[in-house]
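Researcher: Next entry in the queue.
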Amino acid sequence: MKSPKNCINILLVGLDDKFCKSVSQELAETLQMHFTDCGDIVNYYIQEKEKKKKKVGLDYLKRKEKSALKECANFRDCVLTINFDYFKHNLTLFKSSAICYLRIDDDKKLNVIDRISFNSRDEFLKENSHIIVDLKKNDKHKAVKTLIKNLGEIL
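Model: Structure for this entry, 155 residues:
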């Protein structure tokens, strides 16, 4: 994927949300940037999601999610983390971000049924990321070090 023009944020996405969030926090601290978890912003916008879903419907909630994610995408000089589903359905909002995929190929975590889902998600993220950090295990410090090196090459 071609590097973004006028990059305003660094967006980390992966298939292990907890690990991705912890890497994003450490990267932001290392680079002295702000950190935001896009999922937290969505949850702030849409409190009591299930209750509201019954009351106003799924389409309304999707619009509210998109609005919250659009706000995240417009932040400046921020390290963002986002889960796969929000990213997949709102990819175009993040065209001004350097998109980094934290790829962990850990066969121990996946069973046969999950492997099919993993493969399709993995392919999508590889096709839609500027930087792919391949890791054999959850090594936060190695991920941050590799990200900083690769970000220096594209920004």
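Model: The radius of gyration is 16 Å.
Researcher: Noted, moving on.
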